[in-house]
Structure formats: C-alpha cells, structure tokens
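Hi V.,

You were right to ask for the full record rather than a summary. Here it is.
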Amino acid sequence: MPTTLWNRSFTVWLIATAQSQFGSAVAALALSFLVLHQTGSAGQMALTLACTLLPNLLMPLAGALVDRWNLKSPLVAADLIRGGLQLGVGAAALLWGEVPLLVINLVAVLTGLAGLFASPASSAAVPLLVPAPALARANALIGSVSRGAWLLGTLTGGWIVTHWSAPLAIIVDGLSFLVMAALMTLVSLPPRASAGTAGRPAGLFGEVRAGLGVMARSRVLMLAPVIALLLNAGLAPVTAALPKLFASNGGNAAGYGTFLVLESAGVMISGALVALLAGRLASRHLIAAGLGVTAAAYGVMWGCPQPAVLLPAAVVLGFGFGLINTPFQTLMQALVPQAFLGRVFSVLGMVSTVGMPVSLLLVAPLLDRVPLPFWFAVAAAAQGLGLLAWLWAIQTEGLVNTSAGQGAST
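Predicted structure:
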C-alpha cells in the first residue's frame, strides 16, 4: 500500500483524470448543440442524453465483474472503446455534415455501456492509490482537478463549437480517452481483498446480492441511492432545458458554456474548502448544507430565469454540488469493505443515474410545451426532498462522529 499522498500512481491518476474530464466537457457541450442544431428540439436532445444513461441499469452486474478483475483492465478497455466511438461519430459529422439521429443515439448507448465498468472501477481504485488518512484529501483533489479540467474543457468546447464545429469538439474528446488509456497503464494498484476473504457467493447475481447485503447493514448506505435518485431526476430536465433557454434569451453555445464554467468554478471552490478542512467538519453537515444550497439556487433560477441571474446562480449551484459530492464519496469508501466497493458503487451509480434517463424520457414530450423555467422548480423540490431524507437518515443512524475525513458523494 502507498505511504504518501503524492506517489507516482496517484499523480498519474490525477493527470489522466484531468485530461479525460477536459475532453468529456468539450464533447458534452458539443453533442448537445449538434443534436439541437440538427433537430431544433430540446426533446430530441433529451432523448440522446437518455440513451447515454440507460445502460446504467446494468451497472450492478458490471460492478460484480469489476470486483473479480484487476481494476486497471476495465478502466483501460472502457477508455479505448469510448475513444473509438467518439472519434467515429466526430469524423462522420465532419465528412458528411450531419449524422443521423439514430446513429448518434446508438453511439450514445454504446458509450454508456463502456462507461458501466469505468465508474465503479474508478471509485474502488482511489483507496488503493493513497494511505487511508489521506483519502478525504485525495478525493477532494480529484474532484477539484476534475472540475478545473471540466471548466477549461467547457470554455474550449464553447469556443470550438462557436468558431469551428461541434464534430471537431467530439473528436477532441475521443483523443482524450485514448490518452487516458495510455496513462492508466502507468498506474500501479496493490492487490485487493481476495474473493475468499470477502466470502464471495457463487454466480454473478449472487455477488450482486452480497453487495446489497452490505448496503442493508447501514441506513445511510440504503438511503443514499434514493437521495441520489431524487437529485438526478430533478437535474435531468434542467440539463436538457438550459441550452434552449440560453438560446431563447439571445445566447449561444458560449453562453451555455459560461454557465457550466461558473458551475465548475463553484465546485472547485467547495472542493478546495473540503480539502483544506478535511477531518474538521462533519460530513453529515457538509452534505446537508450542500443539499440546502442547491435547493435555494434552483429556487432563485426559477424565480428569475434571466442570464444575469442564472450565471451567478451557477456558482452557488456548483458550490452546493461540491459540498455533497466529495464528502459522500469518501464516506462510501470508508463504510464499505474493499472487496465490495465495485458492487456497492455500481448499485449506487445505477439507482442514482436511472432517475436521469427515466426523467428525460418522461419529460421529453413536455420540454417544448412547458415553460422552461418550470424545470428549475422541479429540481428545487427534488433537492429539498433529498435534504429531508438525508437529515432523517443521519439522525436515525446516529453518525455522530463521522467527519469529512471519513467523507461522502452522490
């Protein structure tokens, strides 16, 4: 096991994560405006986003496989597959001008399938990269560096889409995945607890049930996916509505990109705060504060959906997200045995993300009919319900001594 925070593998991990987030930010903005440009419909854009996320329904099975494998294998394979897919759709759009929506949605599904393995593997790998006392600081650094790279990528993506083209931005994302795959081969991960030590049952579904059994021992672990489901279900229509809202107010890709940049800046600020105060602030209080801050930010955006208000609110929104995510991530890693991390994080990821595609599919027919600011009110209500559920969980479980150093993320 590593003895210091700044070891080679963790440093390479930070660099690889940063450049991957840079490319993903460029592509996320580009894909939204590619579909919007071709169809002019926020509803169609919502369907594409749903196609990316629907494969997450299979994530628990992927998590069980991740707990069987060396963690580097699914990470490298997922990056290679996603890189090839992004390069393919970007090149096709450059060559032929437009890509059929069916092809874009198919690539979105395949990209989501590849990402099934990357998400739980990444969450399970971090505790192996640093000593246990440095885990909260490591998660905060990863979160801040990732958001910084996302911020830079969003700025770059807005500029590329505005001055060049969305397909070129998607190609940049494809290249970033290939670079991350190469960097991951330089990361050394110590062996995890063996299957025998973990009491592995026979069969893939048996292993998934074992992961659920670990979650059932803690009310916080059981309730965490429910809270995340509420939050993502509220966030989904907002994600689909914002680009069109900015366009209707005289904005463009750069204006929407600025919103995402400011949101990322807020996350970075809160991430730096969590890293600085790791071990001093109770994670349960940080998470509750983050839920309250985000609910308030969405409420303000609903009351005054103008760029002059939306942009400052983006900073507050990001700050609240940061107060939720880093402490929650570390809390999961501290509460769950290493041999079960892939399964538990995959269940958490599946339940939390299913809210987004399901919500997108349900609201897609309404996005072009209902006033766009209405979705901010929906998100505010979802955050408020999440806050009430979290307060109930921590009070009934009695996490009195849990600190940000033992932390938490949804």
